[in-house]
Amino acid sequence: MTEEYDLETLAVRSGTLRSQFNEHSEALFLTSSFVFESAAQAAARFKGEEPGNIYARFTNPTVTMLETRLAALEGAERCVAFSSGMAAILATVMGLMKAGEHIVASRSIFGSTVQLFSNILGRFGIETTYVSPTEPEDWKRAVKPNTKLFFVESPSNPLTEVSDIAALAAIARQAGARLAVDNCFCSPALQRPLDLGADIVIHSATKYLDGQGRVLGGAVLGSKELMEGVYTFLRTAGPTLSAFNAWVILKGLETLSLRMEAHSKNALELAAWLESHPKVERVWYPGLPSHPQHALAMRQQKTGGGIVAFEVAGGQAAAWRVIDACRLLSITANLGDAKTTITHPASTTHSRMTAEQRAFAGISDGLIRVAVGLESVRDIRNDLARGLEA
Ligand SMILES: *Cc1c(COP(=O)(O)O)cnc(C)c1O
């Protein structure tokens, strides 16, 4: 199944493989290896002369179904699935780069990605320069002769800053570098970076692709040529997605469009209410006209997505009061779940940054991030109102 179908249809039906039993729902293939019909077939499979499964570190039919479906949703030639989003990010670097090369990355990316780039890749001779996600000119200035990768998340965490993906793609192309977009916050239901000129899309499938907080997973998508090195790393090093997790995520994709619409609708309503609340100093939500990149977001994304950040007066004490007054919302750092989650970034996800780094990134002590779920928005609002009005 290809581009001739709409995204909603592809999310439900693309990539399905049927076994000899002709099952309707996608099967979970729990097997670590596959049997050959002859010694000659085994040899042909190992040589790559005949397509087919060999060993589940390399491929598994359930994982293949997920990869095919996700590739259709992102409009990519090929998808390689991983055991987590971080494994997908590591494999992207390992597949495409070598020692002595350079990354230009947004300063507003997932905390573990910063740790990976700065503390681990630095030891192997890959250097990273961090720049503003919203200033394409800064990316142009940061380019060096050895720059091979641009890395961005849009919208960013937790402030939902929106990057101009087409502009960054053009700068990367001119520099002879590849643009990788971590599309975790939007999913392909809201944003397709490859259509905007990006070379690579990365997912933490742990978030909206699963959508119900059950399993870890990751994926890298792009051209067949770029994915060859990424797949070779997977096959050799083994950060393989389990068949069970692939099956859970595959079934999660069937409701992706519906969920992203509902997350966005709830988030927009909540953000508008927060913006009018006297105890709230500021709200960041790409779907609100007050958002600094609202026009760009509405061009680039179908809707504003499910993440809302807001700042309360009174710093950490006030923010913690709002969080501790919640009876419904879950206090957890995860996101992309049917259950609404609430986080204090300064003391949790971003606590490893210095106070100056946090100030530079705009993460104040009064900042709260809500990953809006699928409950009634009235109930979510009432839960937050209790702490705000205390
Ligand atoms: C969670 C997350 C990751 C890491 O994914 P894991 O599945 O936890 O390894 C990467 N990028 C973003 C934007 C995330 O939110």
Fold topology:
Elements: H1 7-13, H2 39-47, H3 61-74, E1 78-82, H4 85-96, E2 102-106, H5 111-120, E3 127-131, H6 136-142, E4 147-153, H7 165-175, E5 178-182, E6 200-204, E7 218-222, H8 224-237, H9 243-253, H10 256-275, E8 280-284, H11 294-300, E9 307-312, H12 315-324, E10 330-331, E11 341-343, H13 355-361, E12 367-371, H14 377-388
Parallel strand pairs: 2-3, 2-4, 4-5, 5-6, 10-11
Antiparallel strand pairs: 1-7, 6-7, 8-9, 9-12, 11-12
Helix pairs in contact: 1-3, 3-9, 4-8, 12-14
The structure holds pyridoxal-5'-phosphate.
Residues 84-86, 110, 153, 157, 182, 184, 204, 206-207, 216, 218 line the site of pyridoxal-5'-phosphate (PLP).
Strand content: 5-15%
Morphology call:
globular
Total domain units: 2
Q: Main beta sheet, described?
A: 7 strands, mixed
Number of helices: 14
CATH architecture level-2 label of the largest domain: 3-Layer(aba) Sandwich
The percentage helix is: 25-40%
Summing up helix and strand content along with how strands pair, one would put the structural category as: alpha/beta
Please, what is the oligomeric state? Answer: single chain
Alpha carbon gyration radius: 21 Å
- Ligands in the structure? pyridoxal-5'-phosphate
Mean pLDDT: 96
Span of the ends, CA to CA: 54 Å
Please tally the β strands and state the result.
12
CATH topology (fold) name of the largest domain? Aspartate Aminotransferase, domain 2
Query: How do the helices and strands follow one another from N- to C-terminus?
Result: HHHEHEHEHEHEEEHHHEHEHEEHEH
What is the CATH top level name of the largest domain? Alpha Beta
Unreliable segments of 5+ consecutive residues: none
Lateral arrangement of strands in the main beta sheet: 1-7-6-5-4-2-3
